[in-house]
Amino acid sequence: MKKREIKIFVDFDGTITLQDIGEAIFNKFGDAQRVDKIITNLLEDRISSKQCWDELCDCAGAVNPDELVDFVNTMEIDQSFISFNEFCSENNLEIIVLSDGFDFYIDKMFVKYKLEGLKYYSNNLKVEVNGRLSAGYPHYDADSPTSANCKRNHIINHSSDEDYTVYIGDGNSDKEAAQYCDFIFAKKDLARFCSMERISFYPFNDFNDVQNKLVELMNKKNLRKRHQAQLKRRSAYLAE
Ligand SMILES: [Mg+2]
């Protein structure tokens, strides 16, 4: 039988980064009141994530690409992610970053912090010649309205039923995906959601907390998979 592996899925904005960069871009370049309204509509399930990004791109108007790049380069990641990433590669734990944000700034942040080797999936963002922002959704699935990049599908495609899956996230786009994983590390909105839905999770502040808990879990003789996550996976297969 294939050896059980631990697969780690990590959200990007607000989890690896200190700020939600996608939101920060639209707050900076869009009309703040409209941005606020669009994001509220998303969080209250009135629009999908894809609709949200399309409306935000629309409200940003024409953007100067150099200003956008300079702005992105002021953003920072949580430094504890650097040592966590090293810990994972030393222990052969695969990290896959799942972002409902955009390649445009993820690439820049990976270069800034020398994380270029990390595998990630996200939506696409480009600045058109007229300065308008346009978003693309190569991993869209209509069954997942809360994340335009269907995180659940990446989890299923990158893990077997035997693997132990770990999810680390903080927000709206993680709510569905996290439920497919055995061990959930949650903060902010995702933690509130898991508490309300009675989904077991580990609260965390930074990646040192995650690393300490993972070491503890890896040392357990009988590490158990989460039954509800197994049921979720099964129902996803049946729906295909
Ligand atoms: Mg996030």
Mind explaining what this structure looks like?
Helix 2 packs antiparallel against helix 3 (49-60) and helix 5 (80-90) runs parallel beside helix 10 (207-218). This protein has helices spanning 21-29, 32-43, 49-60, 65-73, 80-90, 103-112, 151-157, 175-178, 188-196, 207-218, 227-239; strands spanning 6-11, 94-102, 119-127, 133-136, 164-169, 183-186, 202-203. The protein has a single domain (6-239), classed as HAD superfamily/HAD-like (Rossmann fold), CATH 3.40.50. With 240 residues, it is α/β, with parallel strands linked by helices. The radius of gyration is 18 Å and the shape is globular. 40% of the residues are buried. Helices cover 45% and strands 17% of the residues. The mean pLDDT is 95. The structure holds magnesium ion (MG). The site of magnesium ion has 7 residues, from loops.
